[in-house]
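Morning, I've got a small favour to ask if you have a moment. You're getting the sequence in one-letter code plus the fold written as tokens. Thanks so much in advance, here it is:

===
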Amino acid sequence: MNEMIIKRNELLAQKVIKGLESRNMSGYYAASKEEALKIALELIPEGSSVTMGGAMSVHEIGLSDALKNGNYNFIDRDAYEDKRAAMLLAYDADVFLSSVNSMTEDGVLINIDGNSNRVSAIAQGPKKVVFVVGMNKVCNDVDAAMKRARNVAAPTNAQRFGLDTPCAKTGSCMNCKSPDTICCQFLITRFSRHKDRIHVILVNDNLGF
């Protein structure tokens, strides 16, 4: 990565972390995927019950593999025939892992969901939520973050899942009501009532969508 981009990300991350702290959330900056993995494992005590939404960023830093192979009760919903049962286990988990579709420079988190298991677990239930976020997802403000979520993250995920939505065909949001839409619930997290519940690891890399 270009040295100037690295420097820019370091400076921007410090601004984001201050914004998170003002919202009763904790922020961390990782210079690499390896450092992000180290920080994440420090936030997850051994023996914890851990589950996650469909976060590519968690896989990309090697966190899901580390949990599967470590001393953790990792609830892998892909291993469950009954997906609903696996999703419901998230609400009583010690740790829920996710990324964001986008976030703002002052620490507001934006997430869009289809089944809504991810946004509901972010909002309430698990004792701790750990986000892994590439610096490519940081936007100027809520308006820009919402546009990124709808016009970058949603179409890419619709294509990834092979869904029959207008955005999968055009590459941008058509504000559809398609039966396949994954834009059913919009969650804007602007403050955490419970201190030490939400942790955001900012990674100096392009992660996820």
